[in-house]
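Action item from last week, closing it out:
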Amino acid sequence: LEDRGHFAGGRPDGREILAASSVLVRPTAWEGMPNVVLEAMASGLPVAASDVEGVRELLGPGADAQTVEYGNSHTLADKLLTIMSDRQVAERLGAENRRRAERHFSLERMVGAYQDLRESRIREKSGV
């Protein structure tokens, strides 16, 4: 991976890095809300990730094509090779991810969901 991958750590220029990337690889064991997956989806990138909490929910119907059981590095490598070796697959997954991010996780949608939650809590407390 030395000549093809970059392990950049935490960076303030994440959007620029995603824009210059071909795929997001996320092999981690846990992350409460995998925001980097959502950011990659919004950027139109395909994802190769461990199927851990939150990832499948974000990827939705496209999860099977982009996730593997955590710890299975050989299958993750195979998934990554499949995505990277077929431009049509990568473009299709990236486009599906972008559409899903826009449809289900847009700022307007998330603000509306929080507003609905807040209003339901107020109704619960007031007994309405």
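Closing note: The CA atoms of residues 50 and 71 lie 8 Å apart.
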